[in-house]
Amino acid sequence: MKVIGLTGGIGSGKSFVADIAEKHFNILHINTDEIARRQMLKGGTSYGKVVEEFSKYSDRLLDEDGEINRQVLGKIVLNDENLIKKLDSLTHPDVIEEVNGIIASEKEKKEKDAVLIETALLYEAGIDGMCDEVWYVYAPMATRRRRLKDSRGYSEEKIDGFFSKQHSEEDFLRLADRTVPNGEDVTEADMVKIIKGYL
Hints:
The protein contains nine helices and five strands.
């Protein structure tokens, strides 16, 4: 069973690629953002650590249900590199542990041809170390901007902020084993062919 890391900059369309891979092939799709989000819910693996560390920065960190207010947390860490690293250090190990557990379980079951780990922070979290291959989802910068404006309503300033914090295109291309083109004109049928050629 092959373990594939799927990464790319914000707006590149990682989820589109991962969804098609899972739909058309015998692949298990793991989304690390979803795991991290679930682990930060009340009672989750990361919840207590994040609350203990970040409640000192705002008395509104928790909502009325006792859940972490993600918008408040986002504002706390937004422009502070040290706080971003602190948050990552609290959450990444738990995510990696869960992903490793899923991979071990799938290898034992021998039902899937591959596991696809969709993650923006593949290298930062050390997830590349557990992958047989890394696929980089590429879309032109203008396409990514349009997607982020249309689907998420992001301003140019917010998009610039995200772009400045992520790996450069050159870094992604240098580090990845394969590049998955996902520009404006790529259809689902096109993507099926691309993925089939890489598996």
